[in-house]
Design goal:
The complex is a heterodimer of chains A (about 375) and B (about 300). By secondary structure, chain A is of the alpha+beta class. Helix content of chain A is about 25%, strand content about 35%. In chain A, helix 2 crosses helix 3. The relative contact order of chain B is 0.13. The radius of gyration of chain B is 25 Å and the shape is flat. The chains are: A alpha+beta (about 375), B mainly alpha (about 300).
């Protein structure tokens, strides 16, 4: 068990800057997921914690002690790789015990006991005699997890461990990983490009892009109160719609004016400052509903359907509003065809405004948008003296 | 269809072709079966094998002078020739020396190359690619080019007439390093990284992971090295005396056994066949790993 602190960590490869000074606190026993598109520096960050890369600048600490210059083997961390990194010529059991002898002080009997425990925990007791080539992807990943578990490290580092599995297996292993963490409570840093994995697994989710942390928050707050357009569009599938609007003040409050619609904006922090300027209106497809005939036309967006995508559980509509595109989800058996004109009503509590240039969030229509509710809002650099 | 299957099936096929109605059709089917390709390959194999076959035939004759086709019938002197060469003329000694030399070179070369490759693959060495390129540059300086300085060095060390003289100069090998490096690069870096996180040291990693994982290619490379070492002639001829002399040089001495002013061709061919045997046995035994070695690819 350990707490990991990253302080202003930079990593450069020659002219390429992979990580541009990030601060992050991984509390003891937590499961933190780092998510971002490929090339955002998330894997590099993990490898910096593992010691497989050395920091160009900044500090990585474990329980307050700097890890800079400490060999990977002395960091007491175990890593699970995307390609499992099993030794192909060794049986599953040997794969699990091979490193344990070097990495720990356990004697052979202790290692044997731990292998048996881990095998039971991961349900791989029958597979221990097999070599990796005789194991399926999911089984290989369990063996790789088992290898990490029996070492009983301070920290688990997982680098896209589920990415090589097929979709169904990935969902099952995801649930098992969550259960495993529930039992072991070992501090875990988990890197993925899959936002669903991030949302379902993480106590906290770190969204990274372009070598910088965009937001650190609990999954729900990340979804409800994205700190900027990148987070807003990265988290959630299909992605949040973004429409450039002018924010106007009217007799009954502020409005978002678009060539295709004028939408009233409920009062909220930051709205006043945004009035009389241009902003990007963000609204999630699932927060737009097809309006009935009796809807207040004023609050609706008129849109022309261009593409319909039936997903079974819902009908995904791609529409055009003015020159902009908009996605929305309708009930699966709605009678909507491409070319139809529909009226869409957004949930008034689920609107967001972003700065046109910087993309930072200006306003969320939901209550409690800016007030930290449980101490889990966006955290600025961690208080380093906290002990 | 393998060559053997093609040959076995040939009469049936021939009958089919003869029954065929149009010539164009026949050609099409010939092409389809690849018979022409197989025939061409078979004749090429025969062409390559011909000198060896002649050598084997001649080694069974009394004088071994071949002047006409009739002389290519096997003779009855096989046992006498092989006994004379191996035992009376002590050709076995040369072969034994060659065996020692080749084995030492195989083991030594592998050891040196494996360590060099481990350094390039396991460690983060600055200018790694440049170092590797530098190793490749040594290909421009094979033993014959280094002859004179090497001779002075080896005699200066007092190694002339020792096993060191015919083995140590061969130990560094750019080709082996190259082949092994290409193979090791195909091993996922995460294996190395996992080992580093577990505190598995480089030598343990080499011994317990890299070598067991690379058995096939190591066997293949060993065969290549063995054949190369076995075929060395000029350097052993110069640097060691008769006690340590190798088979290729010994072969020349067999040829010197004149019979009434004639070159002893039968004995010479006997020696040639004997010299051919050890590499041939290795090639046959290890043809699979050998072929895999030659078709290395970065996966």
């Amino acid at each position: 068990m350990a707490r990991i602190t990253l302080e202003n960590v930079r990593k450069e490869y020659g002219d390429v800057v992979a990580v541009r000074g990030i601060d992050l606190e991984v509390p003891d026993g937590s499961f933190v997921v780092v998510v971002g598109p490929s090339g955002c520096g998330k894997s590099t960050t993990l490898r910096l914690v593992a010691g497989l890369e050395s920091v160009t600048d900044g500090d990585v600490r474990k329980d307050g002690e700097s890890l800079v210059g400490v060999e990977p083997k002395d960091r007491d961390v175990a890593m699970v790789f995307q390609n499992y990194a099993l030794y192909p010529h060794m049986t599953a059991e040997r794969n699990m015990t091979f490193g344990a002898g070097s990495a720990t002080d356990f004697d052979d009997a202790e290692i044997e006991r731990r292998v048996a425990d881990a095998a039971e925990l991961l349900d791989i007791a029958d597979l221990l005699d097999r070599k990796p080539e005789a194991l399926s992807g999911g089984e290989r990943q369990r063996v790789a997890l088992g290898r990490a578990i029996i070492r009983d490290p301070d920290v688990f580092l997982m680098d896209e461990p589920l990415s090589n599995l097929d979709a169904k297996l990935r969902i099952r292993m995801r649930a098992e990983l969550a259960k495993l963490h529930e039992e072991l409570r070992t501090t875990t840093v988990y890197v993925t490009h899959d936002q669903t994995e991030a949302m379902t697994l993480g106590d906290e989710v770190v969204v990274m892009n372009d070598g910088r942390i965009q937001q650190v928050d609990s999954p729900q707050r990340l979804y409800d109160y994205p700190a900027n357009r990148f987070v807003a569009e990265f988290i959630g599938d299909p992605a949040m719609n973004a429409l450039e609007v002018a924010v106007e003040s009217g007799a009954d409050g502020a409005r978002a004016a678009h060539p295709g619609f004028r939408l009233p904006l409920p009062d909220g922090d930051g709205l006043d400052a945004a009035v009389d300027s241009r902003a990007v209106l963000g609204v999630r497809p699932e927060d737009l509903s097809l309006a009935g005939a009796d809807t207040d036309a004023d609050a609706a967006i008129e849109a022309t359907v261009t593409v319909t995508e039936p997903l079974g559980d819902s009908l995904l509509l791609e529409c055009r509003v003015g020159d902009d595109r908009l996605k929305t989800q309708a009930s699966p058996r709605s009678d909507v065809r491409s070319g139809d004109t529909v009226a869409l009503t957004p949930d008034p509590d689920r609107l967001h405004l972003f700065d046109v240039e910087a993309g930072t969030a200006l306003y969320h229509s939901a209550e409690g948008a800016t007030a930290p509710d449980d101490g889990r809002t966006t955290r600025s650099p961690p208080a380093t003296s906290e002990e | 269809m393998t060559l053997l299957e093609t040959i076995v099936d040939a009469p049936n096929r021939a009958a089919e072709y003869l029954r065929g109605e149009r010539t164009g059709d026949r050609f099409a089917r010939l092409r389809e079966d690849g018979l022409a390709v197989h025939a061409a390959l078979a004749s090429l194999v025969l062409l390559l094998l011909f000198p060896v076959l002649v050598a084997i035939v001649v080694s069974t004759k009394e004088s071994g002078i071949v002047t006409g086709l009739a002389d290519l019938a096997p003779g009855g002197n096989a046992y006498d020739n092989y006994y004379r060469a191996l035992v009376e003329l002590e050709f076995y000694r040369y072969m034994l020396n060659s065996l020692v030399m080749a084995s030492v070179i195989v083991v030594g070369k592998l050891a040196v190359s494996l360590l060099a490759v481990l350094a390039v693959v396991y460690y983060r060495v600055p200018y790694k690619d440049f170092v590797f390129l530098f190793i490749l540059f040594t290909l421009l300086l094979p033993v014959p080019v280094r002859f004179v300085p090497l001779y002075r060095l080896v005699t200066g060390l007092g190694w002339n007439n020792t096993v060191f003289a015919i083995t140590v100069p061969y130990l560094a090998s750019a080709t082996t390093v190259f082949v092994l490096r290409q193979h090791f690069l195909s091993i996922p870096p995460s294996l190395v990284e996992n080992a580093k996180l577990d505190g598995v040291g480089p030598l343990e990693f080499l011994w317990r992971v890299l070598i067991p994982m690379s058995k096939g290619i190591l066997v293949g490379v060993s065969v290549i090295i063995f054949v190369y070492a076995w075929n060395q002639y000029l350097w052993p001829l110069v640097i060691v005396g008769d006690d340590l002399q190798v088979a290729q040089v010994g072969l020349g001495r067999l040829r010197g056994q004149a019979q009434a002013g004639e070159v002893a061709w039968a004995l010479t061919m006997t020696g040639s066949v004997l010299t051919l045997l050890p590499p041939l046995v290795l090639l046959v035994l290890f043809r699979k790993p050998l072929l895999e070695t030659f078709s290395i690819q970065r996966k």
